[in-house]
Design brief:
Blueprint lengths: L2 E6 L7 H13 L10 E6 L5 H9 L3 E5 H6 L2
Length: about 70
């Protein structure tokens, strides 16, 4: 499995704009480096905006990882 991820140590929740950024990065990866579409991973110390959470629940290729999940698992 290939993944593209980004970690943010912000004082506010991460929004859909960060997901859009990762989606764009995924489109410019050479196929030789990612034979199957990479999963998108977003890490945040202060959670995620509702729109991003809804989008991640509807997609199987997006993972949202907050501090609780990072240190304690699902």
């Amino acid at each position: 499995m290939t993944a593209i991820g980004e970690a943010k140590w912000r004082q506010w929740p991460i929004g859909i704009d960060q997901l859009d950024r990762l989606r764009h990065i995924r489109t410019i990866l050479p196929p030789a480096h990612a034979p199957e579409p990479p999963r998108l991973l977003l890490f945040s110390r202060n959670g995620f905006e509702p729109e991003l959470i809804q989008e991640a629940r509807a997609a199987q290729d997006i993972e949202l990882i907050d501090l609780s999940r990072l240190y304690h698992g699902d």
